[in-house]
Amino acid sequence: MLGQDYAHQTCSLARSLEVVGERWTMLILRDVLVGRRRFDELVASLGVTRTVLTQRLRLLVAEGVLERRAYQQRPERFEYHLTAKGRELTPIVAQLMWWGDRHYPEPAGPPRLLVHDGCGGPVRAAYRCGACHAELHPDQVATRPGPGAPAADADRPD
Amino acid sequence: MLGQDYAHQTCSLARSLEVVGERWTMLILRDVLVGRRRFDELVASLGVTRTVLTQRLRLLVAEGVLERRAYQQRPERFEYHLTAKGRELTPIVAQLMWWGDRHYPEPAGPPRLLVHDGCGGPVRAAYRCGACHAELHPDQVATRPGPGAPAADADRPD
DNA sequence: ATCGGTGAGTCGCTTCACGCAACTCACTGG
DNA sequence: CCAGTGAGTTGCGTGAAGCGACTCACCGAT
To answer: Domain A1-87 falls in which CATH fold?
Structure first.
């Protein structure tokens, strides 16, 4: 992104954002998720410039979020597919879509739905406790310094 | 963000990203979530410039994601707090942190943990089907055009 | 009464990423 | 042989972000 990266941050979030936090990247991932996999298709759908799309796709492929795969030879043409690592980001896309629909609704209703493949029901993102397996409300989530915390934070319980 | 916005997009995701998709914004939200609520505290923690922090905080307050609240008079000093709307974004922050730890681990371990307030167990983001209430693997999630879909997309089942 | 310090911002300059539009290049089908 | 297509690359201008210094209101100590 711009200028210096977030590198001095001892932060898992910052490292994620180096890869998927740039402008257009989430929109590209959503488009690939819904089946728009080809360069010109993405340009047309997003209105992103070809230069920027090239840069983003290159980074996402290098980071193993997308896979670039030829769908024909002579002339060689390519499609971009989500890897397993990339599919792990789809809950984020889902939650952002849900949040946008909730707080900034389109009059016509949401343009795209996420559904449970098979059952057909709507999909939501949720918190789950890895210990007691309860589903959690955002208010029930607290933070604590982890093992890699800088010393300055060790005493900050909230 | 830069130049024209994503406005021509009929897209819930784009509208969310207009608010929380800019550089630094997610990091600011995480810091507020973990209790760094004051201007200079955020500058020191993030390394963001004061100018940019001012802009981001102003937008987040205007959009109702954060609340600016005086914690003392004379001299008047302020803290930023998440609103309910802002807390709805925390699963996204959580999933990004989880993803970063998983794929780009710190040698010392994650610097910050999300825990279930009370139980103390680790928190994960998950998909849940609103109809059959099953927890879903990312591969079990498909997309379909919604009621507000542009005509060009109506026939694109995947 | 002054002096240094703090919290919360502004201001001005520079640089780098993005927007725009045109161009390339390999190939194909009519 | 010429137009068209898919997948980019190139060059130029603008505006957002980085950097550091400055402001302004107030407080507490000398």
So the answer is: Arc Repressor Mutant, subunit A (1.10.10)
